[in-house]
Amino acid sequence: MSNLVNDHLGGLTYTIIGIAMAVHNDLGPGHRETTYHRAMHQRLIDVGLAAEYEPDLPVIDERGNVVNFYRPDHRIEQVLLVEYKAHFYALTNDEIAQCFNYFAASDCSVCLLFNFGRRRLEWKRLFPPKHILSHRHHRRTS
Question: Does the reported pTM lie above 0.85?
């Protein structure tokens, strides 16, 4: 039996992690975030994935008004959010919180967070916390 995490996306997250590793191996650390973002976008397109570049995720208040938009770096195949960083320091709870906000504004159930700025690629596979899921439900039934 495998010890791999089943995120119910049929191996999509593993494909994206592999692409990110290839980009990091190719470019190395030290570039601006936009460089990795564009490199990832091109590789995603090259392998035939539907990759939305900075999709608008509406931020909706309790009355149903759209008050702003979150823009994750990519939404892939309509089911997976991806966020890129290029920090020389390790990922923090601030970057994780940013991804949790994306969950509240989308129906995606997995977000990959990458930090290309380190000597070795740093990544996290994130799932929405239960309080985010209940927040989504409240918004839909209001």
Answer: yes
Q: 12-141: what fold?
A: Lambda Exonuclease; Chain A (3.90.320)
Enter the tokens of residue 66.
Answer: 């759209």
Q: Which helix (H) or strand (E) holds 57?
A: strand 57-60
> What mean pLDDT is predicted for residues 106-114?
95
Res 134: pLDDT: 57
Question: Cα-Cα-Cα-Cα dihedral of 31, 39, 120, 76, to 10°?
Answer: 130
Contacts of 101 by beta carbon, 8 Å cutoff, 6+ apart: 70
Residue 24: name the closest of 108, 91, 115 by CA.
115
The pLDDT, as a whole number, for residue 60 is: 86
